[in-house]
């Protein structure tokens, strides 16, 4: 993700807990300097293993982690800056069965709504397409579709929003 003279990304491992990071590469007169702006801690209060890249929307970065969170099934997080201080907030914890588990792909946004996929979970355990809608300072998750295996399973990629709000994606 490019923002100004900086590039932002994730590592799925490494960092202070070995559970992944968000980093920034900043161009300073032709010399690139790397800094870790967030270290994932895992457990019930944070995600771990962010396999996907970041989405920048409204000055805030959004991303997913494959594991961690309240139920261990992954998270959606936001990361915002105030000066040189970065604040990470888990905005959704995946529960596994009904709502999906283990998001693996980057998010996309349309009209302020975040869209993504989970590799596992959902009604048949074969992954989901989900949305997260902001509502009064919190986020409401909705499963838009649960894969059954016969119609595809385990999406590795995210979705894109086409004309008239149609979502497109792929599965294994």
CA-based shape: globular
Low-confidence residue ranges = none
Could you say what the CATH architecture is?
A: Beta Barrel
Total domains: 1
State Rg: 16 Å
> Based on helices, strands and strand pairing, what is the structural class?
mainly beta
CATH structural class: Mainly Beta
Order of neighbouring strands in the sheet with most strands:
1-2-3-4
Average pLDDT works out at 94
User: What's the main sheet like?
Assistant: 4 strands, antiparallel
Strand content: over 45%
Could you please say which CATH topology applies here?
Lipocalin
- Strand tally: 16
Helix content: under 10%
End-to-end separation in angstroms reads 26 Å
Helix and strand element order: EEEEEEEEEEEEEEEE
Number of helices in the DSSP assignment = 0
Question: What is the secondary structure topology, with strand pairs?
Answer:
Layout: E1 2-3, E2 6-11, E3 21-28, E4 31-39, E5 47-48, E6 55-57, E7 60-65, E8 67-68, E9 75-82, E10 85-93, E11 108-110, E12 113-118, E13 128-135, E14 138-146, E15 159-161, E16 167-169
Antiparallel strand pairs: 1-2, 2-3, 3-4, 5-8, 6-7, 7-9, 9-10, 11-12, 12-13, 13-14, 15-16
Short recap of the structure:
With 172 residues, the protein is an all-beta fold. The chain has one domain (2-155): Lipocalin, CATH 2.40.128.
């Amino acid at each position: 993700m490019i923002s100004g003279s900086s590039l932002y990304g994730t590592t799925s491992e490494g960092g202070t807990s070995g559970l992944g990071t968000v980093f920034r590469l900043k161009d300073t007169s032709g010399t690139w300097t790397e800094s870790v702006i967030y270290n994932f801690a895992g457990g019930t209060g944070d995600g771990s293993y962010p396999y996907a890249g970041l989405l920048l929307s409204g000055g805030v970065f959004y991303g997913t982690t494959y594991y961690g969170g309240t139920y261990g099934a992954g998270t959606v997080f936001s990361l915002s800056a105030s000066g040189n201080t970065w604040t990470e907030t888990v905005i959704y914890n995946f529960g596994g069965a009904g709502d999906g588990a283990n998001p693996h792909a980057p998010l996309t946004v349309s009209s302020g709504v975040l869209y993504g996929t989970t590799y596992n979970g959902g009604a048949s355990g074969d992954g989901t397409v989900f949305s997260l809608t902001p509502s009064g300072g919190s986020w409401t998750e909705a499963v838009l579709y649960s894969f059954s295996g016969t119609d595809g399973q385990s999406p590795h990629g995210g979705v894109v929003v086409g004309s008239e709000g149609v979502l497109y994606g792929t599965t294994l």
